[in-house]
Amino acid sequence: MDKNDEFNKFWNKKIEFINTVSLNYNLTKTSFSTFDNIEYYDLYFTSFDGAKIYAKYLKNKKIRKNIPKNKKIPVLFYFHGYPASSRNWLEKTAYCSLGYDIIAMDFRGQGGLSEDIGGVKGATAFGHIIAGIDDDISNMIYVKNILDMCLLVKIVQTFPDIDRYNLNSFGASQGGAFSLICAALNKDIKKCISLYPFLSDFKKIYDLDKDIGAYEELRLYSRWFNVDGKLDSNLFNKLSFIDSKNFAPKISAKVLFGISALDSDCPVETQYALFNNISSEKKLCLYKKYSHEDIPPFGNEVLSFLLEQ
Q1: What are phi and psi of 280, to 5 degrees?
Q2: What is the pLDDT of residues 67-92, one digit of tens each?
Q3: Percentages helix, strand, coil for the chain, rounded to the nearest 5?
Q4: Mode of pairing for the β-strands spanning 52-60 and 38-46
């Protein structure tokens, strides 16, 4: 079986499995949700393995008042960077003002409120690329994160007033990777926004000796357990199942893609590897003098993209 067939078979089976998981979630309005135009909710759901996963939900009340009753509301899934959290409510409110409901999940075991019950309860800093690498592929923490994301999408699609066929995704770095993976595994994603995506082309990063910063755990793993390189084949075969560039051909959404040419965290070669694998309609925004940082001009592109009819 060729690697692409193996990859597709693996993820097709995982999606089939997620479709059998019961939707068990709880929505609680926050104490500060006292406004006429937006409601703020804490969303907790039980994932496939019993872990409690957290997400912010911003419900756009204003748009519901001004559209016909049969009109459904589009949703924007916001994915955060590594190894952080869904961050503050204010940032999400800005996107809500564009006419979307917003969902922002905390990745398990990182800086937010989601649990990683496969390890210790609470946060861990880095090491997530190689977490589970010596176990079965299904036990890699990023496989679990992807399944959490897919289950969350299914939950949100059951919400009243939601347009389940007009979902959208957005993120930078780790979030940029997950925005693309979300679009690859969920055909109801119509627009996908990704800025300097993470988790792309691990072998190239390793071969170019750019396994530093966020990718440093690849170097440390090799120094500790793979000094002579004999485990390369097994290591990079397993990583291929979470490599964002391998999800790219499955994307059918319209994509807005930002590349930072001076990026040392997510090298530009790996960003292009992902972009070049996307076959759907796509727009590239290249920022030659920016690194892994806030890129204000890209914010204007995001605004225009999200407001397109």
Answers
A1: -80, 175
A2: 887 889 999 999 999 988 898 999 99
A3: 40, 20, 40
A4: antiparallel
